Amino acid sequence: MLAGRGAVVVDADVEARRALAPGGAAHRAVVERFPSVVGPGGAIDRAALAAVVFADPAARADLEALTHPAVRAQMADQVAAAAGAEVVVAVIPLLVEAPGPRPALHAVAVVDCPPEVALARLAARGMDPADARARMAAQAGRRRRLAAADHVVDNGGDLDRLAAEVDRCWAWIRGRVAAAAG
After folding, report:
1. Which of 34, 101, 135, 139 makes the best surface tag, with the fewest CB within 10 Å?
2. Cβ-contact 156, 142 below 8 angstroms
């Protein structure tokens, strides 16, 4: 929705998929560490990888150590390529959880919804509720995420309500851009 309002969006999940793809920056190291998750043609079976790492915190830490540096570097490249854009939004789902230095950000907006809403949405997409709870348990708690926020987008309602929240966020972003320019 922010891209539709003019922002350049750099998404950590997109960059993680690139890093894990055959030939990607983290592919070989992940395949060496987790050989059981390699599918046909050398592609990493992301569902199998998730099953392994969300059941084993040490395995998840290994995966993060192998992938986060590549994702950070790729995101930095994408941000550099967007030089001159008025607004660049970095979508970083694990901003609070990720070890290492936080990227230089002008501000942090957190998209939030109650945990029960998140669980229902994941189940509606076909995710096993136990898997969804395991993934959520591996993430920073809601209180910690909200504490990192300069602005909160409430995503607890329907798409119309979310669009209104994004409009409010966009106005906040534009206000920050105007203040920095003035």
Report:
1. 101
2. no
